[in-house]
Amino acid sequence: MSDSAALGELPLPTEPDYLRFSRTVGSWLTTTDHKRIAILFAIVITLFFFMGGAAITVVRLELVSPEGHLITSDTYNKLFSFHGIVMVWFFLVPSIPNTLGIFLVPLMIGASDLAFPRLNLFSWYLTVAAGACTVYALIAGGVDTGWTFYTPFSTMFSNSHVFAAAMGVFLAGFSTIATGVNIIATVHMLRCPGMTWFRLPLFVWAVYATSIIIVLATPVLAISLLLVMAERWLGLPIFDPNRGGDPILFQHLFWFYSHPAVYIMVLPAMGVVSEIIPVFARRRIFGYSFMVYAILAIAGIGFFVWGHHMFVSGMSPFAALIFSFLSFIIAVPSAIKVFNWTFSLYRGQIAFSAPMLYALGFIGLFTTGGLSGLFLAAIPIDVHVTDTYFVVAHFHYIMVGGSVSAFFGGLHLWWPKVTGKMYPESWARFAAILMYFGFNLTFFPQFVAGYLGMPRRYHTYPPEFQIYNVMSSSGAAILAAAYLLPLGYLTWSLFYAAKAPSNPWDATGLEWSTTSPPPHKNFLRQPRVARGPYDYHPEGQSAEVGPPSYQREQELLQ
Amino acid sequence: MSPTIRSLWLRNLAVWAALLGLLTLSYFAAFWKLGSLTTAIGFGIAAVKALLVLVFYMELKEARGLVRLAAAAGFIWAGVLFALTLSDVLTRS
Amino acid sequence: MSEAAERLIREPWSDLGRQKHGATFGIWLFLASEMLFFGALILTYAVMRIGHPEAFAAAGRETNLTFGTLNTAILLTSSLTMAVAVQGSAAREDLRRLVIVCLALTAALGVAFLVVKGFEYREDLDRSLVPGPDFPLPEAPAQIFFALYWVMTGVHAVHLSIGIVLVGRLALQGLLGRLELRESPDVEVTGLYWHLVDIVWVFLYPVFYLPGRSS
Amino acid sequence: MISFWPETASTLAQRIDVIFAGLLALSGTILLLVLCLLIGFSVRYRRGSAAPRGPMPEVMSREFEIGWTSATLFLFVFLFWWATSVEIKAFLPPKDAIEVQVVAKQWMWKTLHSNGAREINELHVPIGVPVRLALRSQDVIHSFFVPAFRLKQDVVPGQLHETWFQATKLGVFHLLCAEYCGTDHSRMRGKIVVMTPEDYAAWLAAQPEGDDLAKEGAALFVERGCSGCHAPSAKVHAPSLAGLYGRTVALSDGRIVTADEAYLRDSILQPKKDVVAGYEPIMPSFAGRLSEGEIQSLVAYIRSLAHSPEDRS
Ligand code: HEA
Ligand code: HEA
Ligand code: CUA
Ligand SMILES: [Cu+2]
Prior knowledge:
The complex is a heterotetramer. Chain A has helices spanning 25-29, 34-62, 73-109, 117-139, 153-157, 162-189, 202-234, 247-281, 288-301, 317-344, 354-377, 379-385, 389-419, 425-452, 466-496, 549-557. By secondary structure, chain A is an all-alpha fold. Chain A has a single domain, classed as Cytochrome C Oxidase, Chain A. The longest helix of chain A is centred in the N-terminal third of the chain and has 37 residues, at 73-109. Chain C has one domain: Four Helix Bundle (Hemerythrin (Met), subunit A), CATH 1.20.120. Chain D is elongated, with a radius of gyration of 28 Å. Chain D has 2 domains: 1-38 and 90-210, Cupredoxins -  blue copper proteins (Immunoglobulin-like, Sandwich), CATH 2.60.40; 213-304, Cytochrome c-like domain (Cytochrome Bc1 Complex, Chain D, domain 2). Chain D has a 5-stranded mixed sheet, covered by helices on one side. In chain D, helix 1 (11-44) runs antiparallel to helix 2 and helix 4 packs across helix 7. The interface between A and D is large, with 92 and 86 residues. Bound molecules: heme-A (HEA) (2 copies), dinuclear copper ion and copper (II) ion. Copper (II) ion binds at residues 259, 262, 308-309 of chain A. Chain A: It is an enzyme of class 1 (oxidoreductase). Chain A: One of its GO terms (cellular component) is membrane. Chain A: Residues 28-530 form the Cytochrome oxidase subunit I profile domain.
């Protein structure tokens, strides 16, 4: 390990860290430092997460009684539409790639910034503009199309602010494309000496694959929304069945993006979990190369299955069969990942710190949500449960139980690196456990209600479903508390917590070899890498002390 | 005119001539009464023209593998979009 | 490496060759994205045309083939000048004048395209070939053809206008000596964008101008 | 009262429940396996425990990965095949089905029986008899959803959708709109009343003598000017519609099609699409000029002409 970037060998920087590099507000708003832009993104998405959460809090409150009296049907429709739009495009899609992703990718591959720093800043301003459009749509009276904007309702019948909302999503899409291009180019062009493809941390692989999906799928979303806007604004008849248009075509265009988008939302989370587990199990991730292929397979096959959202839409039965088959196939790489995470624990030295709790929660909830996806991929079952709460439960299990948990896990894991402060461990564990129980109480009853036949997007519902809704709403209250906790103690830690060392977890990633928080240019000297990621030793010693177990495992895997 | 400049022009003018030739062909071919073949010819010629621009003007001929890969990805994924959407549209009753 | 080249290096790159390669790769990624953008529009067109072949043939006869062909020729020629500019800027010799002239020509041809397109739009408007109550053709789906016509040529024109600004800016900077045209990645990147916008039009030509001519 | 299984009231529901239960068992097993491994490893290999560590044992190698990859792959292909076979069996309605026309609009369901009886947000059907539904929408996309039958079909405006069911249980069941359709989406609910065949016959007979669909269509046929061209006396050269329904029609572009409902509908809304051989394409489109209900009446009228003795000239 003579010329390696073994931890501690790099001279520690003496210049001020990136947070203190310059202090004016202007220096933040014109920064091209990927770490600062990541923080800017984090502020925006936190804001939107709580806005989306507040909207659905009202919804859950209303659903406690079958004949809701709290709000009108129109308000109800606007609330869940706002919730869906905001949570998907302004929170979950940019959540991990645009915060942890752009913060960590250069650090993890030993670069001083992303390939196109000004494009990066531009992307943030686009997000802000997009967010402004969406907030405008909300303030001006809201939008009531659901996050799916189905035609002809969105084009000819809705009296709400569809144009502004679609414009917001349209811009947000371009913002993610800009970040995607940036990340792909960075991973290809700026890896430091010795950082070969198969030494990349899985998080980098995951964000890289996500970026490919973003770049190739988002333009189609842009077109579908552009056509909706054109139809609303200029009366063009593209989706108007009365003039020969085809409403189902819209669904094809929308889902061509939005199915791959669900992998945009889960792949980075998988990457985070793949980083957390080795750190706290002190073990190399099991089957690293298969994990890489699985990531790429998910990204690739993810483009072939969108039609499973349209089984009852009037699509041709022949196409439905193709899409159903491919939907089963995409579960194979997900299965590989679940098994590999599980076996990474085998013979480890497992510590149950907060990030690890989130990661373990992720595995269980993702598996549950993924398995429910198989029910949906089976056409006859989907015919019954589509557009019911079964689907709502399915995707919240993956997106909230899975991705949001992983996001929180990553946030805690890298909090010391990002802010230079430790978070309060026992509070964090408590929040993680509370989140897990709150989550299951909120969304498990929805599976049952869904199979019993409770449709989604229902303001009022037949009274026999009340019991499940009451359970769900009480779970949501716990969940809200569990999400507010980190907001509290993480903010507290910024001011009062202990200073973090460079490598509090004894981890092997390159990002831990610089100071916390990192200096303006990330590394003072060009790092070099001479070994694979996750070079942990299971006997519990830290990476530098133990023998290079990585090589031995490599031999075993050959 | 230096020799570099001359070869620069010659090379590119040849491609340009081919492009305009194809454009002319495509103009007249649109009037041939061949049913749906006429449409196919129109798009076929467009594809050839696009290929010429891609290969010569956009220098995919000399480009590195990585760049070609990026270019190919665009076409392949557009192909997926077409193939699977049309698998529905063409078989809908 | 020349001193001028040194000045072109930007964070986080350490050498100009890689920076150029990175810029080319980056713009190609964006172009791949653009291909799906226009691909989705052409797919919309294809699906509609499969559903209403006669209406689309009838509508296709209403577009102005002369303007369309002329514009295609203009754009193809602008691609020629752009290609010469790019290759000239990459040549070992200093071809500064040639590059600037070709860039200016390219931008001018782009403007010419927009002017022709403007005349064509005016004619279309005069004949009220706009979806709506005054639409002259009896077939309802012919309106879809023209809806797509306006959207797609409009989006293309926006792209082209951006291209004109970018190319014009390069030419101007070159003229004022503010830009090191020879090693800068900007010329190549702008050129690639320009060519893609051109390719898009090459497909719009059979899409909007050729249908229905043979019947 | 808390229940975990919906009512099973159609032939389809029974078959779907079998798959659902099978999948439930399978994924329950897998979930249990994953959770047991997770918890088991977590406890045994918690930091500081005495369990032996060391490198991964020899058996856990590449073959392991390939093993579970192919195992899941086979399982998934099997699941696909199983689910699909049920789907395909359920696809075509039996020939002897009774027919009901359904029109969806914001925010109600209108159902029309073949004898002209109409209902709003209700549908009476006999038990044990296949019922074929022909669904249309007048405005946006709705979805005809009967949980107890495990039946759902989106209704896209501008298209004719078909689906069918056969009830196996007497009683009243929810009819819901499952596709979001605007303000009162959640109030677009109705009920399906399954009756014995005798009760059904009695119910049908007791319905107010509502204008027979075809009769209404006949009136419209004159009112909307169809007869101006299509009546035998008309000067315009247009095909007679008598005996048309169910026949094959030769089209001017060489295709031969069967004059089914979708064809009649298209002929009215998009006459240029299928021009009958030997006629000029002069018929105007009636798209946007007729409501869904009127189109249905016209189609019913043309269908009723199928059996008239008059031959097609
Ligand atoms: C991050 C988000 C995310 C992810 C990752 C997924 C993953 C999957 N989804 Fe999901 N889905 C959504 C988000 C997501 N989905 C959303 C938002 C909607 C609704 C949109 C709307 O209408 O508003 C939706 C809707 C949806 C539908 C349409 C439902 C409907 O509207 O009718 C279908 C149908 O096939 C489906 C299927 C799947 C499948 C097969 C997977 C697979 O990728 C899952 C694979 C994972 C596993 C299978 C688990 C792990 C595997 C093992 C442990 C192996 C062992 C298992 C066996 C051997 C059986 N999803
Ligand atoms: C992508 C991410 C994502 C996330 C994170 C969530 C998070 C949550 N979702 Fe979301 N949901 C979607 C994506 C997401 N959802 C989508 C795409 C839809 C479909 C929309 C559509 O049909 O178009 C949907 C729809 C949806 C429905 C169905 C509505 C309907 O069909 O009628 C429900 C119902 O329970 C629900 C519940 C929840 C809950 C309880 C949470 C919780 O996890 C949220 C927890 C967070 C908080 C609770 C915030 C805490 C903060 C506060 C409480 C402060 C409040 C302050 C004030 C009130 C002043 N969601
Ligand atoms: Cu009709 Cu929902
Ligand atoms: Cu999907």
